Amino acid sequence: MKNIAVYLGLAILAAACSSTPSKTEAPITEGGKTTGPSTSAGTSTTSPTTQSAIEGNPLHDPNNILSKRSVYFDFDSNAVKDEYRGLIQAHARYMVDHRDARVRIEGNCDERGSREYNLALGQRRAEAVKKIMTVLGASDSRIETISYGEEKPVAMGHDEAAWAKNRRADIKYAGE
Amino acid sequence: MNASRIPVSARALLALAASLVPFLAAAQLTIDITTTGGRQIPIAIAPMAGEEAQPQSVSEVVGADLARTGLFKLVSTAGVNPIPKEPSEVNFPDWAARNAEALVIGKIDPAGEGRVEVRFRLFDVQKQGQLASYSYVVAPQQLRATAHRIADVIYEKLTGDKGVFSTKISYVVKRGTRYELQVADADGFNAQSILASNEPIMSPSWSPDGSRIAYVSFDQKKPMVVVQSLAQGTTKVVANFRGNNSAPAWSPDGRFLAVALSKDGLTQIYRMPAAGGTPQRLTDSSDIDTQPAYSPDGQWIAFTSDRGGSPQIYRMPASGGPAQRLTFEGNYNVGPRYSPDGRFIAFVQRDGGRYRIATLELATGQVQTLTDGTLDDSPSFAPNGKMILYEAQVGGHGQLAAVSGDGRVRQRLTSSAGDVQDPAWGPMPTN
């Protein structure tokens, strides 16, 4: 499957940047190392943690990629498109840097198909986003993946424009 | 093809409004029927003597029940004078001249202590013989339920199959962001809300004895499986593990729930005590396994899996084990539900972007597409196996519909309440 190749690629990338990608107790400075040149290309708007403490919460700063939370998918697919890689990397790095941060990734589907199967499809979309984050060092135990299936559409129409908005995984931090 | 709308008498509506809190009346389902081909049994149902004094016309409900199946044609009783209420008063040649093959007569008399006695008789017009005679002593408020029992007797006598007029259905009504789980009589009357929430409610599933309903609640902002007692209204969260908890299905003995959990990663099927407890994992794939359904003999669990690259229906032994693929046509066959006799599986089939209800005959592997909607979902067999209740999308809204196992009879249950979705047909009443 294509996805496995994506995960493997990321795993190699992560392994090249950090020898302990799965450790959650990594000090912030070491976590900072994972933002080396090879991964920072797509996440250039990420603020360093010291700066964010002064300027406010980067998770809600519209100029920070961390304020972007939604990953959109093609019909019947849970393949994460390249354009969302930077966004997911930024959140993975935030999780590494903030060891108390807890995340819930919520998968969603468009209205087509069976409700219960869509619930599982949405969960697999959320899981696809989580896998990338954990490969990049975010702690598995601090990321829960759930799904709303087709039950909570943000767009109410019955056409492709609406469906595209509803095929989505949202990254939400605890307390939000 | 003929189409008919079951008349709902003003009296019935008044009785309904008086017996229920007002908002429920708005949730009333009206039922339209379409029948294609096939023979209909012409039956005359005479007004019952004394029923005009009662809060509920029994003969109207009996007639509506029978007509709704698409298997009967109601013969007019207009102009019959006097209306027979005893066998000696029946003029069989008159009914034969009206082309009635069967005739129902009856009467309602006071039985003391505020109760009434309902006596009905069913006749074979051609043979001029009595096929059934029953009497019921009930409170006037139970006349509607009594009418359903009478319809059950008539249906079984004339078709050989058990009637399902005394059963209940459940479904989810969505109005804006308001969700209600409702339980109603099989004819859509007496709708009662047993649960209301501002979060989605999904996948109601009746316990085999009809005393409890398992469903998926999002009250804690994630899907969890809840079992609710209908008599007491008490609820118990039986599955609230990390990730998704969904798709509850009862074992035929009512002891276990098969559920879909994602606590170990992707969605897999587990079995757990219906009262809650430790889940035991039944599937072990690296793909989605969900929508479990027990076979009526308890030996198998059918389910949806995309382990083969597209979602298809499989079955495995009920205690887990090697799975066998059951569907092969098309690239989307999901949501299996066994027929009560275990011979068929109803499921959702995608065909060129349209989602329809189909059946698979297990012995032959033959698939029959039964519906022609665009977004049909959630098939649920009537407990006599004759009709399949499902969710259809009409004008962008969820509506309930039903289709006979041979596809000939179609019912559309229309509600003004909002979206009606996720229907589940309850079991035969236990008494």
Query: Spans of chain A of 5+ residues with little confidence (pLDDT < 50)?
Result: 1-54
Beta content of chain A: 5-15%
Give the end-to-end Cα distance of chain B, rounded to a whole number of Å. Answer: 37 Å
- Give the C-level CATH assignment of the largest domain in chain B: Mainly Beta
Strands of chain A, count: 4
Largest interface: A-B, 23 and 35 residues
Overall 3D geometry of chain A? globular
| The CATH H-level homologous superfamily of the largest domain in chain B | TolB, C-terminal domain
The SS-based structural class of chain B is mainly beta
Strand order, sheet with most strands of chain B:
1-2-30-29-28-27
Descriptive keywords:
heterodimer; A: 176 residues; alpha+beta; 60s Ribosomal Protein L30, Chain: A; 4-stranded mixed sheet; 4 strands; 12% strand; disordered N terminus; B: 431 residues; mainly beta; Rossmann fold; Neuraminidase; 2 domains; 5-stranded mixed sheet; 31 strands; 11% helix
Task: Tell me what you see in this structure.
- The complex is a heterodimer of chains A (176) and B (431).
- Chain A is of the alpha+beta class.
- Chain A has helices at 2-17, 28-33, 37-40, 49-55, 85-97, 115-135, 160-166; strands at 70-72, 103-108, 143-149, 168-173.
- In chain A, strand 2, helix 6 and strand 3 form a beta-alpha-beta unit.
- In chain A, helix 1 packs parallel to helix 6 and helix 5 packs across helix 6.
- The radius of gyration of chain A is 16 Å and the shape is globular.
- The N and C termini of chain A lie far apart (35 Å).
- With 431 residues, chain B is mainly β.
- Chain B folds into 2 domains: 39-159, Rossmann fold (3-Layer(aba) Sandwich); 168-425, Neuraminidase, CATH 2.120.10.30.
- Helices cover 11% and strands 45% of the residues of chain B.
- A 6-stranded antiparallel β-sheet of chain B has the order 1-2-30-29-28-27, with no helix packed on it.
- The longest helix of chain B has 17 residues, at 143-159.
- Chain B starts with a strand and ends in a 6-residue tail after the last strand.
- Mean pLDDT of chain B is 92; it is low at 1-26.
- The chains are: A alpha+beta (176), B mainly beta (431).
